[in-house]
Design brief:
With 711 residues, the chain is of the alpha+beta class. It has helices at 4-14, 68-78, 112-115, 175-182, 198-206, 211-218, 265-274, 278-288, 343-348, 367-384, 462-470, 473-487, 493-507, 509-519, 568-580, 626-633, 636-647, 657-666, 697-706, and strands at 91-100, 121-128, 145-152, 155-162, 232-233, 238-241, 247-256, 294-303, 328-339, 361-363, 557-561, 584-589, 594-596, 602-604, 607-608, 619-622, 651-654, 680-681, 690-691. The chain binds CIS-heme D hydroxychlorin gamma-spirolactone. Residues 85-88, 91, 126, 128, 145, 147, 160-162, 167, 172, 175, 235-236, 317, 351-352, 368, 371-372, 375-376, 379 line the site of CIS-heme D hydroxychlorin gamma-spirolactone.
Length: 711
């Protein structure tokens, strides 16, 4: 009988027939069906879970320590928490599957998961933030973790990625420092879920290698709209080996089908308070509504003979491999199609290791990866104990045979009286590489023991400048405002001075000047003395990291504002059009309950104006109806709804008197409302539909469809 996890893994596999062998995760099933009875953990049926056993005269008296049933209940509660992840504590996971399009990657790797198109590989993916604790808000400005466990017949492969393509540091030994610097400060445990504080910017100003990463995280990429709309990057340089033993360097990429979409900073701040679980709910809502998020999996390959052909070191995790130099090759796709059955056993206990690769995938001397390969397994022992890979969510779907024994919570019973190799019984013997055993690439190494990095590791600003120059004007403005927001929270003046002087001035004098206007931090005395910007022009081809915005309305959330007297047929038609486009619509009214249409047909609203705000929706639609529009115009909350949605660049659809209400709320004189039936004028310069009655339901949904650029 499989546990929920087993069912999830099997669900992902049986989603489409698969040749991948999925062993049964034989484990007790916890069936809490209605009417099921209650027991203790040692199986005794419980008669009363509401009263502690005590000696009483019928009124009162002392509770008895002997009450093993009540004691167990308290014991279990007292010991429910395990250490949260030291970073990436806040996360949300889902099950799914991975498949390759064909065997095109065969020339680089012998890994079946990357070359066998007949396979459907079950996966578990966990998205996360980095800085905040397990209970912190989703929409903070932060990196998003994007970790995927592939349950392959050759063992588990963990691709522990982020949504940004580079990292703060080059050498893993600096990780405790950067983590300490960004986490809440030691003297007051402040701030939660934010990098806007002295320590982070002090460290970053003194650690120039972080410049490129800071550009990314302070751009709109730092505040994603949804986990479903982020890219994923392995960041580090791994290696692939083909069946001829030839090795190449590789970077891994996830590109979202929905394109990359961000929140506005004002939105992110508000949603953090209005709905701290916004991304978590968004992922679960989409999957449960059949909008299964999909990513294309791509690889960038550098052959060994070309590894020195670049002005940066290809093992430097603070650098990208621009696509115009190293093309991105799509080879497969990931679909997430099942939410977890229970959060703790699956999402909280899932554990990843960058060192967990399958034959055909290997490591490079990337100093960050080398240290990661030590850290992950080490940290799992603290969180979950040495036998953490026996927890169902972490268990491989292939046989595990070795001489590891004992340790806390050992589940495996080895029916063998030998627990060593070599042994006289030839049990659990090593497997030669040509029979599937993991083969280590015979890399030649020479040199002397010393603590240093190569010369190319010392350049820190070219790609940061390239990134800044590649931004659209509004994206540059957002970046300047973001850094200004952060530094304005640093109350030690040396922090701002150093960061503007030493870092921003070396990335871009335009950027340094703009930030110093906002928060001080004087520019270098002689700007000409600053590193001559290498004129890193904005390079469209290095946009591989700006996933093409493939706008779509599918899975988007559309609010429909209504009050008594709204035009019922319009709302019905609009909801049908939106559903047909894969979007979700929600009725928001003056009360959560019945609202009467113009034909006195009552509809039940999903929320009331106070309960949910425009920030939780991608677009707003306001139908016609004189009385309904009057009510909305007289309500400060609904007037603010429209202004806030407009300020967040959202598509606003409106018809008839509804358009009048919108025009009045936005005080935009040039919105004309025509009333002639059939004649419609769609001025979607603001994404607002001003139009006559009836004849434009189609136009309305078309504008929504077209208005998707507005998202
Ligand atoms: Fe890390 C967790 C991603 C650098 C050490 N890391 C963690 C998670 C993600 C990443 C997505 C959460 C996994 C989960 O959902 O359970 N980390 C990255 C990326 C990095 C990176 C993309 C840069 C390329 N990490 C990094 C370094 C070190 C670590 C340099 C240490 C030397 N990371 C850890 C860790 C964590 C972790 C402390 C904490 C929780 C865990 O491992 O399971 O071992």
């Amino acid at each position: 009988m499989a546990t929920a996890v087993g069912r999830a893994v099997k669900h992902a596999v049986t989603t489409i027939m698969s040749t991948a062998k999925v062993a049964d995760l034989d484990n007790e099933t916890v069936k809490l069906d209605p009417g099921s009875y209650l027991t203790t953990d040692h199986g005794i049926k419980i008669a009363d879970t509401d009263n502690w056993l005590r000696v009483t005269d019928g009124e009162r008296g002392p509770s008895l320590l002997e009450d093993q049933i009540s004691r167990e209940k308290i014991h279990r509660f007292d010991h429910e928490r395990i250490p949260e992840r030291v970073v990436h504590a806040r996360g949300t996971g889902a099950h799914g599957y991975f498949k390759v399009f064909d065997d095109r990657a065969k020339k680089y790797t012998c890994a079946g998961v990357l070359t066998d198109p007949s396979r459907i590989t079950p996966v578990f993916t966990r998205f996360s933030t980095v800085q905040g604790s397990r209970g912190s808000a989703d929409t903070v400005r932060d990196v998003r973790g994007f970790a995927t466990k592939f349950y392959t017949p050759e063992g588990n492969w963990d691709l522990v990625a982020n949504d940004l393509p580079v990292f703060f540091i080059q050498d893993a030994v600096k990780f405790p420092d950067v983590a300490h610097a960004v986490k809440p400060e030691p003297h007051n445990e402040v701030p939660q879920g934010q990098s806007a504080h002295n320590n982070f910017w002090d460290f970053s100003g003194l650690q120039p290698e972080s410049a490129h990463m800071i550009m990314w995280i302070m751009s709109d990429r730092g505040i994603p709209r949804s986990f479903r709309m982020i890219q994923g990057f392995g960041v580090n340089t791994f290696t692939l080996m083909n069946d001829k033993g030839e090795r190449s360097f590789v970077k891994f990429h996830w590109t979202p089908e929905l394109g990359v979409n961000s929140l506005m900073w004002d939105e992110a701040l508000k949603i953090g308070g209005q709905d701290p679980d916004f991304h978590r709910k968004d992922l679960n809502e989409a999957i449960e509504n059949g909008n299964h998020p999909k990513w294309t999996f791509g690889i960038q390959i550098i052959e060994e003979k070309d590894e020195d052909n670049f002005d940066f070191d290809i093992l430097d995790a603070t650098k990208v491999w621009p696509e115009e130099l190293v093309p991105l090759q799509p080879i497969g796709e990931l679909i997430l199609n099942k939410t977890v059955d229970e959060f703790f056993p699956e999402t909280e206990q899932v554990a990843f290791c960058t060192s967990h690769v399958v034959p055909g995938i290997g490591f490079s001397d990337d100093p960050l990866l080398q240290g990661r390969n030590f850290s992950y397994f080490d940290t799992q022992i603290t969180r979950l104990g040495i036998n953490w890979e026996q927890i169902p969510i972490n268990r491989p779907v292939c046989p595990v045979l070795n001489h590891h024994r004992d340790g806390q919570k050992q589940h495996r019973i080895h029916k063998s009286n030998v627990n060593y190799w070599p042994n006289r019984k030839d049990v659990a013997h090593p497997v030669p590489a040509n029979q599937g055993g993991y083969s280590d690439y015979p890399q030649k190494v020479n040199g002397t023991k010393q603590r240093l990095r190569g010369a190319k590791f010392n350049e820190h600003f070219n790609q940061a400048e390239l990134f800044f120059n590649s931004l659209a004007p509004h994206e540059k403005a957002h970046l300047i405002n973001a850094i200004s927001f952060e530094l304005s929270h640093c109350d030690d003046p040396v922090v701002t001075k150093t960061y503007v002087n030493k870092i921003l001035a070396n990335v871009s004098l335009e950027l340094a000047h703009a930030v110093s206007q906002n928060v001080g931090g004087e520019l270098p005395a002689n700007p000409s003395g600053v590193r001559q910007t290498h004129g890193q022009k904005s390079n469209p081809l290095s946009q591989v990291y700006y996933a093409p915005k493939k706008p779509t309305i599918a899975s988007r959330r559309v609010a429909i504002l209504i009050a008594d007297g709204f035009h019922g047929m319009e709302v019905q038609a609009m909801r049908g059009a939106l559903t047909g486009l894969g979007a979700m619509s929600f009725l928001i009214g003056p009360r959560r309950g019945e609202v009467q249409s113009d034909e006195n047909v009552p509809v039940k609203t999903d929320h009331h104006f106070e309960g949910q705000r425009s920030t939780l929706y991608d677009a707003v639609f306001v139908p016609s109806g004189a009385q309904h529009a009057k009510t909305l115009s007289e309500n400060g909350r609904t007037l603010h709804w429209i202004r806030e949605a407009f300020g967040h660049c959202k598509t606003i659809g409106a018809i008839g008197e509804g358009a009048g209400f919108v025009a009045n709320a936005l005080n935009l004189p040039d919105i004309k409302t025509t009333t002639t039936v059939g004649s419609d004028e769609v001025s979607n310069s603001y994404g607002v539909i001003t139009t006559g009655k009836y004849g434009v339901m189609k136009a309305a949904s078309e504008v929504f469809a077209a208005g998707q650029e507005g998202f």
